[in-house]
Amino acid sequence: MTVNVMANAMDRYPYVGVRPYSAEEEGCFFGRAREAAELVDLWRAERLVVLHGGAGSGKTSLLHAGLPPWTGGGAVDVLPIGRFVNRSPLPVAALPEHNPYTLALLTLWSPGEPANRLAGLTVLEFLRRRPAPRDRFGHPLLTLAAIDQAEELYGGPPEHAGHREAFLAELAEALSELDHLHVLLAVRDEYLPELMSGQARPALPFPLGPLTRDGALEAVARPIEGTGRWFADRVAENIVDDLSAGTGFVEPTLLQVVCSRLWNALPDDVETITADDLARYASVDRSLAAFCGSAVAGAAEEHDVSALQLAAWLQRNLTGVRAGGAVSEGAAEAEGVPSRVLRDLEDRHLLTVEAGAYRLLAAPLARAFERIDGKDLDAWAVEPRDRLDAAGAALADGELALAERRLELALRVSDEWDLRFRAEAESLGGDIAFARNEPARAEQHYRAAASLYETLQNTRAVAVLLVAIGRSLVAQGRAAEAMDSVRAAADRLPGDTFVHTELAHVLWRLGQNRTSLTVLREVIATDVSGGDALRVRGELLAELGEAEPALRDLDRVRGHQSSRVRAARALALATLGRLPEARAEVGMALASVGSDGPALLWAARVKAMDGDPAAAMDLAERSLSAHTPLSASQRDMALRFSAVETGRDD
């Protein structure tokens, strides 16, 4: 009997701790049956629903483990759960131009498809080309699409604001065109007003609060059914009552923290979990103290601050005589606590934010802080893979310093003989450097990653990294070397349209325009969607003055509304004498152009054709010092605009 109990107990982990439940763990997910049923009914009935709640309220667990049993009734087409941050296995420098939010979502909706083939597709284009299931009458089944953590739309660097607006426009277009599409967005409470106001169609909110007492009791007792263990009378009730602190409600994350710690601490021969077991192995206060210490230690390590000082600051401001108090980011900054640390502690479910002020997630945490000891603040234990994923998420958010810090920590605790891990880490290091506009350092990282993948005999990974190396070389003005790198990639993947499109782009940079057009024509003939090749050809034709075919290509690239595409389109329109349209297009291009040399040069040419030589000169001069450099022929043209055509002496 004891042996069976031990086997059952060790084979089953009924509680997940601080992380969310996965779809595979739906059999252990309890306490949300009413909310799941109501939410699915609303999702089926309405075109756009917004699930909202605080950090740690269980939105992700509900989507992954709570909804699937309820969506199965009736014939429906359910897409995989989406997100706006999903690190592509391809290096950033090897991806075609794309909207990062759209691409992250589509790679999760279509996990088997290479990211470079999805880049540039809109949500509508993806759904239309996807073979959607149909009923016996040939009508499309109801398509249910859920997107988790929609607050990620509002992260990222400032230049991503345009991508956010473009994605919301894509979503509105898909909902308008596809009557069978029903979308569910999950978002934190503080982002709800902005998300709701940004929608082109009315959205229905669905709030998700803490667990009720009955729901919390289910979440404690039901998952261990069939494990050979059970709770003695009143033990589950005592856990729930301690966590509710008299409110009648329980935060799901804290319940999981306590129950998982208790489960892992119990000796294998325990069958009946008694009040003495709870007190001896994992009392509520002791478990929450360890949780608080781990959250503080993790945030302190990642942001390079003192864990002891951070814990003392939190206790001083949010617990004790000021229990239930709150602090703003500004007040924290004034006392030397960076605002990003507070946001990190919210992500770790220690804090929650209301009306711009942070407070402890729940009242029992105030008691827990009084019991934190030095062991709780020791080095934060986390897997290297989790650290690497967190570094990728920070990069996607535009937090480049944090991304570097997390990458450094990942490498510090990783196995130096895990070549695949180190190859991925080097590639991510290249991505971070590329985002910092440090192409020489990016090149070094990409070369190191390529060497490791060569050892692992991963031909495709090596080829893609050679493309990334080529783009890094182009950014350094070393187009001839870039050609060697991209040709080597093409030799490894002779039929890959993505690599050959990049080959055509480098040929253009070297002034071999007609050869470039020939390669692009072959790529487009092979890839019926055209992919990135249409964009590159449209831009090249616009630069060469072949305006009508340029517009035909650029008008087909609906998913690429980048500043460069808009500037090329404006140039083609101006060449045809359609100046009012060109003005509007170039205005949108300049609103988000950043430091893109070719786009700035094409905008300068439009301004010159529109009779504004001063603006043409200014834009041409900006193009000469842009982070994305001009080719030799483009540079010559920019110099003419800045000096000769404007009448200024050299």
Please provide a written account of the structure.
- The termini are far apart.
- Helix 8 (160-177) links the parallel strand 3 and strand 4.
- With 650 residues, the protein is an alpha/beta fold.
- 58% of the residues lie in helices and 7% in strands.
- The protein is globular and about 85 Å long.
- Helix 23 (459-475) packs antiparallel against helix 24.
- Among the domains are: 2-17 and 211-282; 31-207, Rossmann fold (3-Layer(aba) Sandwich), CATH 3.40.50; 286-377, Arc Repressor Mutant, subunit A, CATH 1.10.10; 573-650.
- The strands form 4 sheets. A 5-stranded parallel β-sheet has the order 2-3-4-1-5. The protein has a 3-stranded antiparallel β-sheet with strand order 10-12-11.
Short note summarizing the structure:
This protein has 650 residues and is α/β, with parallel strands linked by helices. The protein has 33 helices and 12 strands. The longest helix has 20 residues, at 284-303.
